[in-house]
Specification:
By secondary structure, the protein is mainly alpha-helical. It has helices at residues 6-21, 30-48, 59-64.
Length: 66
């Protein structure tokens, strides 16, 4: 079984947060962008539901899926 590294998981989830909270790239179709945002929000929610978090600030995760 692989060991969970919370710092790596946090960084990966922050990538999704930054994507969701950022601007849509120029030239990206509305439908493509909506799908991208939905998939990343789903990823963030999955990560919020994990039980390995300790002292990490999960506020950015919560804000991104509002």
């Amino acid at each position: 079984m692989l060991e969970v590294n919370a710092a790596q998981q946090y960084a990966a989830t922050m990538d999704s947060v930054n994507l969701v909270m950022g601007a849509r790239p120029v030239g990206t179709l509305d439908t493509v962008w909506a799908d991208t945002v939905a998939r990343n929000k789903a990823h963030i929610q999955i990560m919020l539901d994990k039980d390995f978090w300790t002292t990490e600030d999960l506020t950015p995760f919560q804000n991104a899926i509002k």
